[in-house]
TrEMBL record:
Taxonomic lineage from the root: Bacteria, Bacillati, Actinomycetota, Actinomycetes, Pseudonocardiales
Entry GO MF terms: DNA-binding transcription factor activity; sequence-specific DNA binding
Keyword Secreted: no
Domain HTH araC/xylS-type intervals: 210-309
Key words, A-Z: DNA-binding, Transcription, Transcription regulation
InterPro entries attached to this UniProt entry: AraC_lig, AraC_XylS_family_regulators, Homeodomain-like_sf, HTH_AraC, HTH_AraC-typ_CS, Tscrpt_reg_AraC-type_HTH
Stated name of the protein: DNA-binding domain-containing protein, AraC-type
Length: 328
């Protein structure tokens, strides 16, 4: 288990909206869902991603752009296109609307992907699950682009082959391919010489800090001290403390406390029957009062208040989603 594994586990393509759309200019797809993270890849042709309040980004064949929500964005043949926008969401769009259909897992396009002068766009909208995945999203810019690269090439080939058929189990296959594609895209972007990778990404490759991070993420509930971490990493206590703070900008136990509270925040929502004392023990606190004090110090509210607010927010979201579904 490493930091990237932990942060990525809440961002999954399970049941996500997958779109395979073949278009002929002029075209304008308006992505209105505001998904936390949307991956857009052009298999052939080209187009422009136009985010709200951001400059347009040209997307050529076998290039990928990630758009972080909740702002909407459009995909157009040319900036200022004369095409009428088609609103794209979970029920986008009927075949008669420009000859395209977005479905869960497969496509039924009125325009043949083999025809000349067409653009084929693959999209995957990722749902966001909890505080853990929010840490990953917070490390990303609103628009992140990755050109065609050797690591993502095989995934694109598999995706192109899968969307060309309609077979049982296709949603599961596409979910896994989207996860693979997202990991490849993020790796390539974080590893760019001119990239702006978060501190924890580079820290994983540090021989001292990387080992300490691995231990903290593998056993977050263990009674860690700086001395114990240093012994495991094979360095002195002072060396670990200084190296960790230099690389990550905070001491090891401060990082651990923040990570424990992130885990606890998700557990409070995911396990509504669990008591605060049970959640406290799960993340390494034997005393629920000490846990509650630490949670409030870091999160600004106590665990019970956080659970009530998060549950109410989730219920409101479900109600709005249900209302929207009934109107289509």
């Amino acid at each position: 288990m490493d930091a990237f594994d932990d942060l990525f586990r809440g961002v999954r393509a399970h049941g996500s909206l997958f779109g395979s759309t073949t278009l002929r200019a002029p075209f304008s797809l308006d992505f209105v869902d505001g998904a936390p993270l949307t991956m857009c890849t052009v298999l052939r042709g080209s187009g422009w991603i136009v985010p709200e309040n951001r400059p347009p980004e040209l997307l050529r064949s076998r290039e990928t752009i990630l758009v972080r929500g909740p702002a909407r964005f459009t995909f157009v043949d040319e900036v200022g296109t004369r095409a009428e926008p088609i609103a794209c969401g979970v029920d986008c769009a009927d075949p008669e609307q420009g000859g395209t259909r977005h479905r869960f897992g497969w496509n039924d396009c009125g325009v043949s992907a083999d025809e000349a002068d067409t653009t084929t766009l693959i999209t995957g909208a990722y749902p966001l699950r909890g505080e853990i995945s929010q840490r990953l999203l917070d490390a990303l810019p609103v628009v992140l682009r990755v050109d065609d690269g050797p690591e993502c090439d095989p995934v694109l080939d598999h995706i192109a082959a899968e969307v060309a058929i309609d077979a049982p189990g296709q949603q599961v296959v596409l979910d896994r391919l989207l996860d693979w594609m997202l990991v490849c895209t993020l790796r390539e972007w974080f590893d760019r010489p001119d990239g702006e990778a978060p501190a924890w990404w580079a820290a994983q490759r540090d021989p001292v800090v990387g080992e300490a991070l691995r231990l903290l993420h593998a056993q977050p509930a263990a009674p860690w001290t700086v001395a114990a971490l240093a012994r495991q990493a094979g360095v002195s206590r002072s060396t670990l403390a200084k190296r960790f703070a230099d690389v990550l900008g905070e001491p090891p136990l401060t990082y651990l406390a923040g990570w424990r509270m992130t885990l606890a925040a998700d557990l409070l929502v995911e396990q509504p029957a669990a008591t605060v004392a049970e959640i406290a023990r799960t993340v390494g606190y034997s005393d629920p009062f000490g846990f509650s004090a630490a949670f409030k110090r870091i999160r600004g509210v106590n665990p019970s208040e956080f659970r009530r607010a998060a549950t109410a927010t989730a219920a409101t979201g479900f109600a709005l989603a249900g209302s929207a579904a009934r109107t289509v």
